[in-house]
Amino acid sequence: MITPAPGPPAQDHSPGAPPPSPLAKHMVWVPGGTFQMGSNDFYPEERPVHPVAVDGFWMDEHAVTNAEFRRFVQATGYRTLAERPPNPAEYPDADPALLVPGALVFRRPPQRVSLHHPGAYQAWWAYVPGACWRHPAGPGSTLAGRERHPVVQVAYADAAAYAQWAGKVLPTEAEWERAARGGLDGAVFVWGDEFAPRGRMLANTWQGEFPWQNLKTDGYEGTSPVGTFAPNGYGLYDMAGNVWEWTTDFYTPHHPDAAAEACCSPRNPRAESAAQSYAAGQPGAQIPRRVLKGGSHLCAPNYCLRYRPAARQGESIDTATSHIGFRCIVRAT
Is 111 helix (H, G, I), strand (E, B) or coil? Predict the structure, then answer.
C-alpha cells in the first residue's frame, strides 16, 4: 500500500474559490458549471458537441514534474511499469526480445516518411529497453537540468499511484476539458480561436512537417519546463501541447449522442466501463484504453492537430512513452 504524502500548506490562487483543501498548494480553482464539451469540426471521436456540467475542483497548475515524481519514488520505493519486466502471458504474440523493462521513445527520422499506412508509427517510435522516467530517451539519458520538465514514461497505473500518494485523484475527461477551456467555452484553442496570434507561439507543439522536420519555432525540440508558456484563463499551464495527460475515463469512439439526453446536461460524467475501449484488430487489442487529453510537443497539423481542449485520444493503460504525463485534482466535495 502506498502511504499518502503529508499535505503541504494551502495556497488560494483563485478569487471566488471555496476554502482550499490542505493539499491545494500549487493548485488553482476550476469553477463548476456547464460547458459545451467536444467539437464537430475536427476528428470524429470529438463529436458531438454536447452540454456537460461539472462541480468545481482544484487542479495542479502544471503537469507533475520530474522533481515531484522523484520525491514520490524516494518516499515509497515505487517502480513504474516501464521499470518492470512485462508479463509474457499478457503479450502472447510479442517478440520475446521485447519482453524486458523499457518504454517507447520518439526518434525523428532523417527524411520524409509515409504517415498513413498500417504500422507507419514504427518509423518514428521505438521500444527501447531501459527507457523509463529516469532515462526518458533510453540508457544514457538523464534528468539533469530537466527537474521542472513534466515527468514522462509513466503508464496509467503510475499516474494513479502518484495521485494516491499525494492525496489527490486523476481528473475525468470532462473535468480536464472544463479546466483546459479556461472559461472560453467553444474556443478552438485554450487561448482563443487563432493558433499563433501576431506570430506568437502559445504552446509547445510541432512546427514543420511531422515526423522528420521540426522547425522548433516555439524554441523546443522535446518537452519544455512547466510554466514556459502563458497560463489559460484559470491559471493552468500547458493545457495544450508539451505532454499528453492521463484521465480516468475509459476511451469511447465518440461522445454520447446529445439528442438522446436532450432533457438535461449530464453532471460529472464518468466513462467507467472498459467495454468500448479496446482497439480491435490493432496491436495490444486486449489492453483497455483510457482517454488522453491535451496533445503534446509531437502534435502537428499534418498528422495530429490535437493541442486543443476538445481533442482526445485513447491509449492503452500499459503504455509509457516520451510524450505522456499527467496532473492531479482535488474535488471540493
Answer: coil
Q: Which residues pair with 289 in a beta bridge?
A: 316
CA 94 to chain centre: 26
Return d(Cα 12, Cα 15) in angstroms, integer. 8
Phi first, then psi: give them for residue 109, nearest 5 degrees: -70, 155
Angle between the N-to-C axes of helices 156-166 and 66-76, in degrees from 0 to 180, rounded to the nearest 10: 80
Give residues with Cβ within 8 angstroms of 47, minimum separation 6: 38, 39, 40, 254, 255
Strand partners of residue 64: none
Per-residue pLDDT tens over the stretch 191-242: 999 999 999 999 999 999 999 999 999 999 999 999 999 999 999 999 999 9
Please tell me whether residue 88 adopts helix, strand or coil conformation.
Answer: helix
**Whether the Cβ atoms of residue 312 and residue 299 lie closer than 8 Å to each other:** no
How many other CB atoms sit within 10 Å of the CB of residue 59? 25
Q: Which of 165, 120, 146, 128 is nearest to 65 (CA)?
A: 146
Taken as a whole, the chain contains a residue count of 333
At 299, the amino acid letter reads C
User: How far is 138 from 131, CA to CA, in rounded Å?
Assistant: 4
The model's pLDDT over 115-138, given as tens digits with 9 standing for 90+, comes to 988 888 889 999 999 999 999 999
Which three-class secondary structure state does DSSP give residue 31? Answer: coil
* 21 backbone dihedrals φ, ψ, rounded to 5°: -65, 150
Question: Residues with Cβ < 8 Å from 263, sequence gap 6 or more?
Answer: none
pTM: 0.93
Q: The C-alpha cell of 77 is what?
A: 520505493
d(CA 220, CA 195): 17
Which residues have C-beta within 8 Å of that of residue 152, sequence separation ≥ 6?
133, 136, 223, 243, 320, 321, 322, 323, 324, 325
